Amino acid sequence: MKIILSLLLSLFSLCVSAQDPFFYIFLCFGQSNMVGQGVITDADKKPDDGFLSLSTVDGPDGRKVGQWRVAVPPLCRAETGMSLVDYFGRTMRLNLHGKVRIGVVYVAVDGCAIDLFDKDTSKQYIDSIKADWMRNEVAAYGNDPYGRLVEIARLAQKEGVIRGILLHQGETDAYNDRWLQKVKKIYGDLMTDLNLNPKKVPLVAGEVVNEDQHGICSGANTIIDRLPEVLPNAYVVSSRGCEAGPDKLHFTSKGYELLGTRYALKMLQTMGFEISDGESTVETIATTGHIEPIDVDGQLDDKGIYHATATMPIQRIDYVSYSGKVLSSIDAKGATTIDVNTRLYPDEKRLVIVFYAENRSSTSIEITR
To answer: Is residue 13 flagged as an active site residue?
Structure first.
């Protein structure tokens, strides 16, 4: 009898009872740093039956779409690496003293733009993808990453409670207000499609590799840090001090550990927990209220001059490389119409022109040559 009871208890620890209020579900989405690029060691694979992942893909390691598995790395897909979500889950479990189980629903694609997760633009974006490796990653989610995230999240809702959303994306396109508005829309779509209360489901986003690590996309952090301005229930954690790999684009396992810990501590704070470890937490980006967006329309002539017209006075115009480096700036002196020479940097195959209004809102155009 004792042997049978022990077996039943072991099986129960891997299963999830219906509508368990102490089973916290977190949705995770983004691009390569959310996928996870860290080295996985044998020590990393120590299982915790209270940290689970509901698979969004099939895999050669036995994972199946819609089935729970103990959250041992790799979490995103069978061929991926250590990620910030690994350390997020472990930190949550540690601080909740094992009394609450943690579950993650995980969809991420290397190199993708935020458009991939907008259900109204994803098909057009997917059709534009040229690289076979990216098309294969998208295909793993049934060529509908947002739809797969919602589909599996609904399964998770039958057994636990969605308590938050984790986002790490921006290396590709977080250089203007359009990214902010896109994230806001995707968050709103998730609230609607999953019947969630936004007051109870915060979104925590993380900066890309910081300039203190010579991050080649660190210019995106200026925009990422402003997310709470357009989404009051959003929080941003800094990547300052998070170790970067040689490419200065991705974090090392050590970097993911610090970043994932910060995600967890910030999420715990949103739940009302006091966090005393000030070294591990990072400054909160304050909500400053709604900022009216600026729109810029224009036409590029055959001489490379972009004739721009803005909906409000333009304070500054930046020439930005696609990696996020500001190449130069122009004082626009409050003009609403201005001619921008896009040929100043002929070696930049993808040049971003960012327009800043006096109220700090911004938008951009991208010139591809």
So the answer is: no
Catalytic annotation, pick one of 250, 253, 362, 364: 250
Instruction: State yes or no: is 32 an active-site residue.
Output: yes
Among 223, 103, 81, 118, smallest CA distance to 166 is for 103
Q: Please choose, from the candidates 314, 313, 341, the residue with its C-alpha nearest in 3D space to the C-alpha of residue 328.
A: 341
Catalytic residue among 32, 55, 122, 239: 32
Q: What are phi and psi for residue 222, nearest 5 degrees?
A: -60, -40
Structure tokens at 116: 């991939």
Task: Count Cβ atoms below 10 Å from residue 338 Cβ, excluding itself.
Answer: 18
pLDDT, tens digit only, all 369 positions of the chain: 333 333 333 443 444 446 799 999 999 999 999 999 999 999 999 999 999 999 999 999 999 999 999 999 999 999 999 999 999 999 999 888 778 999 999 999 999 999 999 999 999 999 999 999 999 999 999 999 999 999 999 999 999 999 999 999 999 999 888 999 999 999 999 999 999 999 899 999 999 999 999 999 998 999 999 999 999 899 999 999 999 999 999 999 999 999 999 999 999 988 887 765 444 333 332 233 334 567 788 888 999 899 999 888 998 898 887 555 778 889 999 999 999 999 998 888 778 788 888 766 677 777 877
Q: Is 65 helix (H, G, I), strand (E, B) or coil?
A: coil
10 Å CB burial of residue 149 (0-12, 13-18, 19+) is buried
**What is 153-217 written as a DSSP string?**
HHHHHTTSEEEEEEEE--TTT-SSHHHHHHHHHHHHHHHHHTT--TTT--EEEE--S-GGGT-TT
- Is residue 247 part of the annotated active site? The answer reads yes
Question: Per the residue annotation, which of 247, 301, 331, 339 is the catalytic one?
Answer: 247
Q: Tokens 């294969």 map to which residue?
A: 136
